[in-house]
Amino acid sequence: MTINGKKFYLGVDVGSISTNVAVINEKREVIGSVYIRTDGKPINAVQKGIVIMRDKLGEDLPISGAGTTGSARQLTGIIIGADIVKNEITAHSLAALEIRPDVQTVLEIGGQDSKIIILRDGVAIDFAMNSVCAAGTGSFLDQQARRLKIPIEDFGDLALKSSNSVTIAGRCTVFAESDMIHKQQLGYPEKDIIRGLCDALVRNYLNNVGKGKVIRPPIMFQGGVAANKGIRRAFEQSLGHKVHVPEHYDVMGAIGAAILAQEEIQKHPRPSKFYGWDIPEMTFETTGFECADCPNVCEIVEIRKNSELVARWGSKCGKWDDLAVSHEPDVESKTLMEPMINQF
């Protein structure tokens, strides 16, 4: 569908901390974006994000293609009627390449996960993600901000005011808090402690997520933490290169999902599966059961829309595949090759 000859594409990125929605036009210009908290309720967050986007746009734009990404991409794909479901590595890479085709490194830090993507000649050749520890993520800073009783929004500006970074043990959130308290008791100014926390996060990120990676410029910094000017400065000082923060740094995954949707529809022309802007008025329910027909004892997940069973997955043998959802549809991007990314 088009309006005045123009087509629009929707992308949704749902993670553990944030839910992001973006709408782009045919030229891949962002015409609307939404960043909200997931709050442990991905279905509600997606519906809320659609409502906010609908209100922002002021009209129910016809969507020619919809894509989802993020840790809840499968579920989100069912909720919105996605044309493509793809991993975050691909989505973030595409969004970064759209802004800077020559980008060679993408640093992405979210609320509870972080990743690094190495690109060469427009192709993602390597990537890494954080392990179970959250010391290199946004939640690390949030926790310390609460401890210091300072709004997280003020962290970056305060860090920039410091000319003396206090060394904080950032390998673990528990040790970091203990070390921070010790530095407070020694009388260090808050701005120096905050700068030390920023430096600790970057140090932990580079020593873990970025370990063994050849980080070359141009470097793109994405994710919610990219708003923190202190973190950006810490990266630039550690890497010795300028770090670029894109305008829509916080919704780059959603933008990448929208681009993937555009590529999918262009490659396989068809009407979009997108349910429409009345998704918030629909009811969705997730249920499940264990299949005891073999020793695998698979947990089968079922999704119902308005009481109708629309998706089912979790079967290892294929017994329940009549309504199965593919984990990663076989879709190639024009700009990315994914032989090693598909393992994600």
Q: What this model shows, in words?
A:
There is one protein chain. By secondary structure, the protein is α/β, with parallel strands linked by helices. Helices cover 33% and strands 22% of the residues. The protein has nine helices and 13 strands. It has a five-stranded mixed β-sheet, sandwiched between helices. Strands 8-7-6-9-10 form a five-stranded mixed β-sheet. The chain has a three-stranded antiparallel β-sheet with strand order 11-12-13, covered by helices on one side. Strand 9, helix 8 and strand 10 form a beta-alpha-beta unit. The longest helix is centred in the middle third of the chain and has 19 residues.
Give the uncertain stretches in residue-range form. 325-344
**Structural class, please?**
alpha/beta
Mean pLDDT: 86
The number of strands is 13
Beta-strand percentage?
15-25%
Largest sheet descriptor: 5 strands, mixed
Q: What is the overall number of helices?
A: 9
- Give the SSE order as H and E letters: EEEHEHEHEEEHHHHEHEHEEE
The coarse silhouette is: globular
Helix content: 25-40%
Report the radius of gyration as a whole number of Å.
21 Å
- The side-by-side strand order for the widest beta sheet comes to 3-2-1-4-5
Task: Provide a brief overview of the structure.
With 344 residues, the protein is of the alpha/beta class. It has helices at 42-57, 73-80, 88-99, 138-148, 155-160, 173-185, 190-208, 229-239, 252-267, and strands spanning 8-14, 18-25, 30-37, 63-69, 84-85, 105-109, 114-120, 123-129, 219-222, 243-244, 284-290, 299-305, 308-313. The strands form three sheets. It has a five-stranded mixed sheet with strand order 3-2-1-4-5, sandwiched between helices.
